[in-house]
Design brief:
This protein is α+β, with helices and mostly antiparallel strands. The protein has one domain. The chain is built from two helices and three strands, in the order H-E-E-H-E. The protein has a three-stranded antiparallel β-sheet, with helices on both faces. The longest helix is centred in the N-terminal third of the chain and has 20 residues. It is globular and about 35 Å long. The mean pLDDT is about 85.
Length: about 90
């Protein structure tokens, strides 16, 4: 199934990173390393996952407010949200 995005995929990631760095990171890093932030790249609205291994409730809360949300995720202090094996904490949180 092809889903047509309103932005190119790389743009979604760029927008997500920019929102995280400008708006969210100052409030969560380094206190909440390991938690996952669910971000709507259209509006900049976001939710923080109480349990970093279960993002669905946070995504549901965000979609209640923003039904047309285009979601991007960021794990605070890590380069990726999930991986097999260990990851080092990234420099920019």
């Amino acid at each position: 199934m092809n889903i047509r995005l309103p932005f190119p995929r790389r743009s979604v990631a760029s927008r997500g990173r920019a929102i995280y760095m400008e708006k969210i990171r100052p409030h969560v890093y380094p206190q909440q390393i390991g938690t996952v932030i669910v971000i709507d790249v259209r509006s900049g609205d976001y939710e923080i996952c109480a349990n970093p291994f279960d993002e669905i409730p946070a995504e549901d809360r965000l979609r209640e407010r923003r039904p047309d949300a285009l979601i991007w995720r960021k794990r605070v202090g890590y380069q990726t949200v999930a991986a097999f094996g260990g990851l080092r904490v990234d420099k920019d949180g």
